[in-house]
Each structure stands twice: as structure tokens, then as C-alpha cells.
Amino acid sequence: MIPAAKGGPFEWALDAYIGWKFRSAFRGLWVRGELPAAGPGRLVYLNHANWWDGFMLHQLSRVAGWDAYCLMDEENLRRYAFLARIGAFSIRRKDAVSSVESLRYAKDLLKRPRAALYVFPEGEHRPFGELPLRLERGVELLARVAKVECVPIGVRYAFFEHERPDVLLEVGTPHPPGSLPVFQQGLESVVRRLMAVTSLEGFTRKVSGARGVAERWDAARGVAP
Questions:
Q1: Coil, strand or helix at 10
Q2: How far apart, in whole angstroms, are the C-alpha atoms of residue 90 and residue 43?
Q3: Could you give the count of Cα atoms lying within 13 Å of 58 in the half-sphere of its Cβ?
Q4: Who's near 224: CB < 8 A, 6+ residues apart?
Q5: Residues paired with 207 in a beta bridge
Q6: Model confidence over 178-202: pLDDT tens digits?
Q7: pTM check: above 0.70
Q8: Is the peptide bond before 225 cis (omega within 30 degrees of 0)?
Q9: CA within 20 to 30 Å of 35's CA: 11, 205, 206, 218, which one?
Q10: Which string of b and e fits 123-135 if b means at least 16 CB within 10 Å?
Q11: 25 and 52 Cβ atoms separated by less than 8 Å
């Protein structure tokens, strides 16, 4: 297992780079629903729709004030080893011994103040809105072992009449550990709500990105909104 390796000057530099990279790529990070305040450890589970998800989670952690970690397939973490510096740790999904080790490690992480553990229970990228979701049992086992609050969050990347895409997050209702159908229902409910979104009404922008060409042109003409 590859453990998380947060801390040190490299984390600071990576933190600054990811923030810059995210803001330059997107118009903003928008949230609808109540992000739980930093406090006891919690399990946050999300749909996995995009390569950008890791960078997005980094920005979400800063907004929410969470000390965040993310469970990641070991092969991918070896490929992107720098992600361990922002809280990623590994699991070998088809190795029972490795899986138990990772579950124990995750349980210990969740005992830390302000801890949040991100899990993508689909286990792989899937196109947004492809239902039903195919969840693996790992999220259920982890929740039962750690005995923490579980929070579903839906993620959608979308364009709304702007040069750059927006990242939309739909925060669901926190719940205690339960069976896999509980997680299935929790995640599908937030994804379905995002599927119906046609504007940013009701969302709050938590991270502002770069302005597009149209916005800079309007500002130069003195007609910016």
C-alpha cells in the first residue's frame, strides 16, 4: 500500500499549482446543498466522471475546511505519485490482503480531526448520467468499519454559455453506514438532480476561475455585469 504523504514544502508548491491549474481551466466551482462543517471524520462518496476529479476534490477540501484524503487504485497512484502529497493513498482492489490493510489505514485516518475521506465507489471513470450506477462493495465495508457519517456528492462538468466549463456539485443528505443499496440510492439521487440542471440558479460559486474572452472584452468596453 502507498500511504498518503501530506506535508512539507512540496505540498505547498503542489497546492499552489493545482489551484492555478483549476482556476485557469474552469469558470468556477459551484455547490448546491449544505457542505458539512469540519468536525468528526466523514466518508464522502462521489460519481467518477472526469480526469479532473482529483483536482476538483483538492479545491473542495479547501472550501469546506476538511483535512481530506482519497482512496485510489494503486496502479494509478504509482502513475501519478504526486497525488500522495495531497492525500491520496492506494488500494489493490483484487488483492484481499492489500484491501484489508487499506481499510485499516483509512479507519485510522478518519479518527483525525476534520478528516474527510473521498471514495469513488464506481471504481472507474464513467460518463456522467449513465444510470444505473455500478457501485462496488468497498464503500459499504469502509463505512461499516470506520463507523462514520457518509455524505453523497454528485459531480457534473458542464458548459453554460461560457468559454470555460463549470463544475457543479450537488450535496446530498448525510447518513449513517448502511447496505450498498443505501449508497446506491444516495449517489443516484444527487446525480439525477444534476442531470436536470439547465442553469446555475440555486448554486453558490465557491471557487472563481479565470474570465473568458467575452468577459474581458465586455470589461474593456465598460459593460461588464
A1: helix
A2: 16
A3: 24
A4: 215, 218
A5: 29
A6: 999 999 999 999 999 999 999 999 9
A7: yes
A8: no
A9: 11
A10: beeeebeeeebeb
A11: yes
